[in-house]
User: What shape does this take?
Amino acid sequence: MKSVIFDLDNTLYSYDRAHEKAYAELQRFVERELRLAPAEFNRLHAEAHRILKRRCGNNAAVHNRLIRYQIILELIGKPIFIAPEMANLYWHTFLGAMELEPDAVQTLQTLRTMGLRIGIGTNMTADCQFEKLRLLGLTPYVDFLVTSEEAAVEKPDARLFALCAEKSGAAPGECCFVGDSLEKDALAAKNAGMTGIWYCPGGSDRGAEGIRVIRGFSELTALLQTLCG
Ligand SMILES: [Mg+2]
Assistant: This one.
């Protein structure tokens, strides 16, 4: 094994907890500024997501909150130039609320000392993921980054994994991919010729053939020591 590639959101830090805080802040903003009740905003948010997905498909622009909020404002006939304020409020709150998963940094340090190249393979736009890695203090441990914006496709598309392997300088068979989604990370990585590792902190009865499951990062170090022989 020569390289370990991590998904970022909900793998190295909790996306869900940061999103919850940021979304609640946004709900308060639109209720105050646009007189939109939370239930109505939730409906519009989902509708805007469907529209955006229809327009950009399997592309990182689907994650662009500025465009999503622009669509919401278009749907309700309000000035679109409130959208940047909404996106800034969301991301400012989100980035301030991020928390690393337990043992994430120690694990990356250990993998580094084992001589492994560390990468990130993530479905998101580049500027956002660069900022998350900086604020989480992970930049000293990351050798390369692949975003779906750069790959022009989203996981589980094999082309994103191929670009990860290319940047690692190793063959797919010499790469491990660790992520919280069984389908989009672990299984997709396995289908691309890598070792797929499912990060599942809560544990699960689910699983898939040939997929290793870890409940925490301390288990990952032990597993990789075995795989590296
Ligand atoms: Mg994830």
